[in-house]
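Feature request, filed as a ticket because there's no other form

It would be nice if the structure record came with a short human-readable summary line next to the tokens. Right now we just get the raw output. Example of a typical job, pasted below so the devs can see what we mean:
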Amino acid sequence: MDELDLHKIFETALFLIMIAAGITAIAKKVKQPYPIALVIIGTLIGLMNIPILEPLKNFITEGEIFNFVIITLFLPALLGEASLKLPFSHLKDNKEPILVLAFGGTLISFLIVGFSAYYFLDLSLPAAFVFGALMSATDPVSVLSIFKSVGVKKRLAVVIEGESLFNDGLAVVLFKISAFSLVSYLDAGWSGLGMGVWDFVRVISLGLMVGGAMGYGFSKLTKYFDDYPLEIIFSILLFYGSFLIAESIHASGVIAVVVGALIFGNYGARIGMSPTTKLNINNFWDVTALLANSLVFLMVGLEITRIDINDKWWLIISAIVIVLIARSAAVYVSMVAINSFSMKWKHILNWGGLKGSLSIALVLSLPRDFQGREDLLILAFSVVLFSLVVQGLSIKPLISFLGINKKEESHSEYEQILAKLYRYENAIKGMKDAKGKYYITKTVSEELVNKYQLKMEIAVAEMDELYLKYPELKKKQMETLRKFAYYAEHEAIDKLTKDEIISSEIADLERKEITESIVRLTYKEKG
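Raw output as currently delivered:
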């Protein structure tokens, strides 16, 4: 590859980032899920003939390019970022629903989609179960992004996040077995079944060991350094190193990344990271994940336009129905014994089983001569588009309809009293301004101002009663106020430094102390 090619690739990547950033910014401004906006705009760009964008479209819709970018470049970062911030305590408290969905639900979905695709969609056995693997897991790149943007109850969000992280690794293992080993296992009879089970266990176990060893090793390494730029580099090496090492020994790279990042973000953070380091590592991966997600979903939209769906409508509709039925069975059957989850929450888990970029990347990785590859491309792309656009856009209305995110009574009462206080305060300010402007006498103004001040005193008394009734509300308000106080302290140090009243060394020490106070407060809020 010559210098001209590298320059062209850099220009293409920069142009793609500009488009993705612009769409993401607009979507966030209008408070809509940015992944869906990116997929829709990407699809429209792909369908339109825009001469200036043709080189960009041709470059990023190459199967090898898309597969490399999604699986090798972005997937370790996205999985690592999500796992890094997931506390062990949250996983422990919700281990039952996460495990039954990630393992039991994924296997149920895999079998239902696989057999249905074989009998009703006329796919070959390997192709049918490849499709089952593609559709059996919720894609973390899609699910985590969309659910963060629409917002769900904390416990429900943890279960969705935990499921999407762990069942993704399981689905990739099932995909590889179905695509490359299923026929030989079937030909071998019962011994083949044993080999298949052993291969399944081996891939997952090796992934766990690689991720566990590297996560523990890098966690120990942080004890010897208090240098957050270096520790950010450690996290990069951990995420990509565990993925590539696991894949090189035919283990699950996805599981290795998830396990390694979980250990690093929990054990490593506890034994070797200062609050400043935690904050900066989280901030670094926040930016990285936003950039990666934005590019991923735009590329998915562009990639979807490559498929030719002529005379395939019956096949596509049937596949979508099969996938929806399989997801329903996976959720309701696997969680039948989980009494702590209401039926409303199960409905959200069911409809929130979105498919995304990973499914497309995996199907593009199939060899060109794989039997049924073109049909699998059409089916996977169509289900992903339906999932992201139809299911993704309807999740937020469904949450509202089911009343899952209704505000607590204390919040409603607080907002009502707060509205009164602001009304009365602004009314008093307005009357004082009008007094001088319109020459209103003191006797008239004081009488009306006193009435409003009395209303304010009553509202303040109601607020005090509310704090006594709901102590946690006062605690949250106190934490919010304390955070703003820390920000004000930080600005004061900046001003003193700018005016050369204190030295840079003292300013750095003061900033570090303030930053650590903010981090402790943030982690306290997250529980």
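Something like this underneath would help us a lot:
The chain has 22 helices and no strands.
The CA atoms of residues 42 and 476 lie 41 Å apart.
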